[in-house]
User: Fold these one by one.
Assistant:
Number 1:
Amino acid sequence: MNTDDSHPVQPCRTVRPAVPAGRKGDLSAQARQHLGNELRALYGSLVTDSQPQRLLDLLAQLDTALTARQKADAVAFRQGLTEALPALRGFAISLTVNASQADDLVQETLLKAWANQHRFLPGTNLTAWLMTIARNAFYTERRRRKREVEDADGTAAGQLIELPAQEHGMELQKVLQAMAVLPAVQREALILVGAGGMTYEAAAELIGCQIGTVKSRVSRARSALAGMLAHDQPAA
């Protein structure tokens, strides 16, 4: 599934954020399980939320570009894009920590994917292919701006998205705000492995880093997030 957008553009380096005092080292198995449950619940809320109408409209408009010769393959590809949209948007949110920016990134990704669908190898993972395009576009834009967008207090994440009403909605909102403080490379690794269920190997292939780098990013992200959420001693 080679594509001009499939080659990672972010340097493979391990970012080392500050870890709160007294919270160094690996988390206990109990703490990791508790944190993992919350991450999966958060990711589930993001990917099952209703998708923005402008993205659905964009997918519908792609039909107008079909020719009779292309139609069978293109319709199947469009269906795949529709099915991958929730996971793709959840991943975009984890990168941008801003709903509007995430939708812009998803729109750009869908248009690039449509224009390069001939490069996609049928039978391979379309969602992973789309995520690769999205992360490359995201990091390319960051380098173009030549600046880091910081959100030290989690304000942007607090305005990011209104999570579906549920029993633990407020707790998930806190997780979302804390995620915004993590470096983007750690957020994406944690979402892919800790919430999306990817193996370290699959995440490393998508990101374009060594497996050890992904493991390090996930470990540091878990420790920092647990520190912010005070999850070293989860309830039994």
Note: The first helix runs from residue 29 to 48.
Number 2:
Amino acid sequence: MSTPTPGQPVRGSSTGRPIMALLDLLGRRWTLRILWELNQAPASFRELQSRCEGLSPSVLNTRLGELRENRLLENGEQGYQLSPLGRELIEQCLPLAQWADGWAARLVEQNGH
């Protein structure tokens, strides 16, 4: 499977509209988890694999390549880190994370736990 690129056909879209390319990239196994972990702090390959329990080295290597190719992460002094574009993407995801926290709280409240 090739790296999703805006303007090129991607999973679910023959046109490769930018939003479809982004959804294809973010929908790949472990991609969002890797970005989320790097939002917490930069990490070496081994540390990132440890934080993403159950992630195989080959999948991690593939995802890191895709994220680097799409300029969402970069290598820094402390290992892999979000690039400015990656940080901007995570900022756009924060309202979704806040919504998820409220959703979880309402479910717990409704279920009486």
Note: The beta strands are 73-76, 79-82.
Number 3:
Amino acid sequence: MELIKGRPADETGRLEKEIRVYDLLDKLGMEYYRTDHEPATTMEVCNDIDKILDTLICKNLFLCNRQKTNFYMLMMPGDKPFKTKDLSKQINSARLSFADESYMEEFLDITPGSVSIMGLMNDTDNHVQLLMDKEVLEGESLGCHPCINTSSLKLKTKEVMEKFLPAVHHEAVIVELPRYDISE
């Protein structure tokens, strides 16, 4: 695996939704680095990707309320544990759970294992509210998939907040999730 600036030179065999991500990032004038890899389905692969990107790789969780009327994408540091009670209080939504993958595909045009902030470009009706852990904003850059888990991107956090999110008509709600001692 290597880190390459910008989009792939040869886009043969790449999915349309991945190419749309590169098209949007280029249109917005955003700088990004990319690495291609086997599907990121194991922690070993993810750890290798982390080393190549040399940035915070975000864990992205697709959640909903019990009634399945409110949907959320939570971006948080990959090494931070997630407990629904910590988030529920902050967004006034009891009984959060993982949303069905059918909603993920319908709203974000992504499949399990590929959840990424880039999917918000496909959520033109704003069904999904972005929730971002405060720690994500502390890094100069962040890592995410371009809507497919066989590539990973390194983006400047400031550009994601100031260029990407306004372009896709989404705002981040900043939440603060605690870190727990191993003993908890």
Note: Strands lie at 4-5, 32-36, 56-64, 71-77, 97-98, 128-133, 141-144, 151-156, 172-175.
Number 4:
Amino acid sequence: MARAATVLAGQGPAIAVVSLGGALGAASRHGLSLLLPHAGGFPWATLLVNVSGCLAIGALIVVLTEALTAPPLARPFLGTGFLGGYTTFSAYAGEAEGLLSGGSIMLGGTYLVLTLLAALAAAWAGTRAARLVLARSNDGQPR
């Protein structure tokens, strides 16, 4: 117990902003799932959330590490908190398992592969786009 207290000492603000960001991100994800519900079909809302979240994470990390002198709690709030709560790879796994175990092998397999490839591509695209925007704003030329 003393070890846990030692590890957590001074982490109150970070824990608070991650919690707040996570709650806001999860609420945003839930709102999107209400706009794009799926009833046994392809889980478009989860795919959109995970891909857009990965795009945002890629851009955010570039902006926070290469462009700004960000406040110390910006990355925990926005990255770990908001975007961590917004993206939902646990729902992705559960939905894929549900499709596969329900006999929709092609749909489930497509969902598994599409989400993985699209999320990785989106994270790369987010970093690349942010670097291009930053380069143009710095010297007018892309890098």
Note: The helical segments are 2-8, 12-35, 44-67, 74-86, 89-101, 105-139.
